[in-house]
From TrEMBL:
<feature type="domain" description="RRM">
    <location>
        <begin position="65"/>
        <end position="143"/>
    </location>
</feature>
<keyword id="KW-0694">RNA-binding</keyword>
<dbReference type="GO" id="GO:0016554">
    <property type="term" value="P:cytidine to uridine editing"/>
</dbReference>
<dbReference type="GO" id="GO:0003723">
    <property type="term" value="F:RNA binding"/>
</dbReference>
<dbReference type="InterPro" id="IPR000504">
    <property type="entry name" value="RRM_dom"/>
</dbReference>
<dbReference type="Pfam" id="PF00076">
    <property type="entry name" value="RRM_1"/>
</dbReference>
<dbReference type="InterPro" id="IPR012677">
    <property type="entry name" value="Nucleotide-bd_a/b_plait_sf"/>
</dbReference>
<dbReference type="GO" id="GO:0009507">
    <property type="term" value="C:chloroplast"/>
</dbReference>
<dbReference type="GO" id="GO:1900871">
    <property type="term" value="P:chloroplast mRNA modification"/>
</dbReference>
<protein>
    <recommendedName>
        <fullName>RRM domain-containing protein</fullName>
    </recommendedName>
</protein>
<dbReference type="InterPro" id="IPR035979">
    <property type="entry name" value="RBD_domain_sf"/>
</dbReference>
Length: 147
């Protein structure tokens, strides 16, 4: 049991994955502020996502052949994604983004086709359709600024 005179300060530490940890820290007096390293904040800077595909997209893939698929179910696998989209053309890449902590898909993926017409057909054919019990959204992948 803690004594009646002990006071505790709550410290909130934000990590890159937007989860918060509340750590009780003893505070010796109201006027004393301990250094940040002794407050109980732990370095939680770790990557929380993993890509199911290991290869980097090649420079030959232009933006029109690369698609962004969102709204995916946590049950979606790379195989089910490939099966749904390969009827529109030759898929060169299926990249299902995974959450390392939860060990499940994060709900979005990137697909690449060899031809722009195939990508356009997949976008028109699958946007707003059901896949693994969820409505998915398909659009042209945008390049990240600075990438």
């Amino acid at each position: 049991m803690a004594s009646a005179h002990a006071s505790f300060a709550l410290t909130i530490a934000a990590s890159r994955s937007f989860s918060f940890t509340i750590v009780p820290c003893p505070s010796p007096s109201p006027t004393h502020r301990p250094a940040a390293s002794s407050v109980g904040v732990r370095n939680q800077q770790r990557a929380s996502t993993a890509m199911a595909c290991l290869q980097q997209p090649s420079a030959s893939h232009d933006a029109a052949t690369r698609l962004y698929v969102s709204g995916l179910s946590f049950r979606t696998t790379e195989r089910s994604l490939r099966g749904a989209f390969e009827k529109f053309g030759d898929l060169t890449e299926v990249c299902l983004v995974m959450d390392r902590v939860a060990n499940r898909p994060r709900g979005f993926a990137f697909l690449s086709y060899t031809e722009e017409e195939e990508a356009r057909g997949a976008m028109e054919g699958m946007h707003g359709k059901f896949l693994d019990g969820r409505v998915i959204f398909v659009e042209v992948a945008k390049r990240r600024p600075g990438a």
